Amino acid sequence: MEKNILMITGEPSGDMRGGELLKELKSILPNFDFWGIGGDHMKAEGAELTEHVRNLSIVGVTEALKSLGKVREQYLNITRHIDKRKPSLAILIDYPGFNLKVAKYLTSQNIPVIYYVIPQIWAWGGWRINAIKKYIDKALVLFDFERELLEQHNINVEFTGHPLIEGFPPPPSLFSKDEFILSLLPGSRKSEVENLLPIMLDAAEIINTSLFPNTIPPGFPENAICNKKLKIMIAQNSNVSSDIYDLLIEKHKELDLHLVLNDTIRTLENCSFSLVASGTATLEVAVMEKPMVITYKAPLLNSLPYKLIVKTPFIGLVNVISGKEICPELLQKNATAEKLAEKTIEIINSPEKLKTMKKALKKVRESLGEKGASRRAANVINHFIQEKNL
Asked: What is the rounded distance in angstroms from the CA atom of residue 348 to the CA atom of residue 351?
């Protein structure tokens, strides 16, 4: 039986983290094969996929209910593979609803489990802490406040830092004199793009009309914002069909729109402001120290459980890390084009608010740790393997 390590994620962001980690693991563990559930990033680093994340990524109760049969089929499929290949170790990445169930099965088979990118237990309540304590041998966390939380429950945990820092350059200090660039990051899932991109584009229309009139009143200084042209960069994700983006932007021919495929840095590097779907993208914007408004809108059935069980007053990771709202959150019924535009214009027109936000975002960037997070995580995993003689 070959030495092999199982890796599982079910979401695009988890696939990115898995790909970064696998790149480091391959050099440290050349005698191991890697396989499991992932996406293009993990596949590019040599993982043998039994299923692609594009077939599993689920948001909210509605999608979960529709996908119960598919998820159960994948669970049974992965347990069959586990029985056949008998991995030395399993590395589970985010995707808690599925991964914690798999962790329970792995534990019953005496297969050690490392959890990388833990569930948002600080937001959703403590029941998953009990599952982590019972079925996970070691947790590797991206945020130091997660380490503190797990240590309070006597869970074997190590803070390795966030890999986002690795690929992002220092925040640029120069901006275009002729253009005001607004970045739209509507998420990486089909449902998110369909729900949020239309709202963001409608907000961009309002911002364009309000701040960038065709006729400039006389007497305005040369560097006034109204002397610039609005350019809009849209973060496009390959997990979502390009036809969806094309259909949505077709309705906004008057705007100067540019789709940027799978390149958040290019989407953000020269922008002045961002409208961002809640999730990992808020950290990407924070790392570039770009002012933002955070938004999210899901069907009512999806939002009701959130309201009932959520523990944190914020959902934007930058606000969770800061412990206060440093970037406005417009969610559910407040996620309208009018309110997005109003809040954006309010911030853009206030140098003091922009300065305060950028200062807070810099602190968020610093909290993510030094570069080399994926290498540190790989070294911890290697040490675990040596310690357990796997």
From this structure: 7
> What is d(CA 242, CA 262) in angstroms, rounded to the nearest whole number?
12
Evaluate whether 90 touches 114 at the Cβ level (below 8 Å). Answer: yes
* CATH number for the domain running over 179-367: 3.40.50.2000
Name the residue among 280, 276, 278 with its Cα closest to residue 293. Answer: 276
Q: Token pair of 336, please?
A: 């309208």
| Joined tokens for residue 90 | 């399993």
What is the distance between the alpha carbons of residues 265 and 270, in angstroms, rounded to a whole number? 9
Residue 334, burial from CB neighbour count under 10 angstroms (0-12, 13-18, 19+):
middle
CA distance 123 to 125: 6
pTM, two decimals, is: 0.77
Distance CA 10, CA 39 (A): 8
pLDDT digits (tens, 9 = 90+) for 241-279: 999 999 999 999 999 999 999 898 899 988 999 999 988
Domain 4-163+372-388, what fold? Rossmann fold (3.40.50)
pLDDT tens-digit series, residues 164-178: 888 777 776 556 678
